[in-house]
Specification:
The protein has about 350 residues and is of the alpha/beta class. About 30% of the residues lie in helices and about 25% in strands. The structure holds zinc ion (2 copies). One zinc ion binds next to helix 2.
Length: about 350
């Protein structure tokens, strides 16, 4: 089969490798679509350094496909079933797992980090992922393309659950990349009355305007004025920073309402993660600042249900579907800032 392996910084190779065999407790999935994540782009550039990454590695973790084969001890699954795969494999025994937050498990592993991922014709689902419910059925009416972007959507949902985005809120999303647009969709689905999308790249801003999900669009220099105008000078209930920018994080604290919530959803580049803030802004205005990372399988199932019931339309965010053979084109698109979700299909 064909598999796209990362060997080092900017060293991706499409290779012909044997079709993988599975153990009694594993499942083999024939990949139908695997979306390129921002983390894939970063991992390719860095050669996968950090996060327990080992090389060479088949990367790609936003996977949909069809079960090809199940191990003899696997129950509840059968060949031919359409599925998506969870990404995070948690230990089940650390304090965060016990508290119900497997996404921040101390011992977490992940597809495309410690296990081969989905930029290939087939992917082996490790037994731990099978046992934890990480193989989820795709409901009727959802295409493989849409289903493949369930995982990033679920990360956005994890963020909005913690930020408690609620009916009637004014929500600001900073960053109009794919995940920023997912945040806009979810905030609307959760009943936000006004969603403001801010983006520094004019091309991306225009692309999001064309999709037309937010109520207001702006560039960062005009954001504060717009927020104050929309909220009568009070500030936003929730500000979600879905951009790798320290400046955007600082701005979030400046435009949030007293008692509002600020979510540092996107990580900052390594070496650039120090920011300077006036902490009195947080103190006197009783602002809640938090981050979120990854998601749970439950959140992935919720996203599938939201797609199935048309509460969110993932199709709007898929701008490019590229054959796996043309992965270079796909990664160039994903890096360019002129695409939203780019899918590789074997
Ligand atoms: Zn992802
Ligand atoms: Zn754990």
């Amino acid at each position: 089969m064909k598999a796209l392996k990362l060997y080092g910084p900017n060293d991706l190779r499409l290779e012909e490798v044997p079709k993988p065999s599975i153990s009694d407790e594993e499942i083999l999935v024939r990949v139908k679509a695997c979306a390129i994540c921002g983390s894939d782009v970063r991992n390719v550039a860095a050669g996968g350094s950090g996060h327990g990454f080992s090389l060479p590695r088949v990367i790609g973790h936003e996977i949909s496909g069809v079960i090809e084969e199940v191990g003899s001890k696997v129950v509840d699954y059968a060949p031919g079933v359409k599925v998506i795969l969870g990404v995070v494999i948690s230990c089940g025994r650390c304090i965060y797992c016990m508290k119900g937050h497997p996404n921040i498990c101390i011992h977490k592993e992940a597809l495309s980090y410690q296990y081969d991922g989905g930029f290939a014709e087939f992917v082996v689902v490790p037994s731990a992922l099978v046992k934890q419910g990480g193989v989820m059925l795709i409901p009727e009416g959802i295409s493989f393309e849409e289903a493949s972007i369930t995982e990033p959507f679920s990360c956005a949902l994890n963020g909005q659950e913690l930020s408690d985005v609620s009916m009637g809120d004014v929500v600001v999303v900073i960053g109009a990349g794919p995940v920023g647009n997912m945040h806009v969709m979810l905030a609307k689905a959760r009943g936000a009355c006004s969603v403001i999308l801010s983006e520094v790249n004019p091309e991306r801003l225009k692309m999001s305007k064309d999709i037309g999900l937010a109520d207001h669009y702006t560039e960062p220099s005009e954001l504060k004025n717009l927020v104050m105008q929309v909220t009568g000078g009070i500030g936003a209930d929730v500000v979600i920073v879905a951009a790798p920018s320290g400046e955007a994080q600082v701005q979030a604290l400046d435009i949030v309402a007293p008692r509002g919530r600020v979510n540092f959803f996107g990580g900052l580049p390594r070496g650039k993660s120090q920011i300077q803030i006036d902490s009195n802004t947080i103190h006197y205005r009783e602002i809640f600042v938090h981050g979120t990372s990854d998601s749970t399988f439950l959140q992935m199932k919720k996203i599938l249900n939201l797609m199935a019931t048309k509460r969110i339309d993932a199709k709007k965010l898929i701008t490019d579907i590229v054959p796996l053979d043309k992965y270079e084109e796909g990664f160039a698109k994903a890096r360019s800032g002129s695409a939203l979700k780019v899918l590789l299909v074997p």
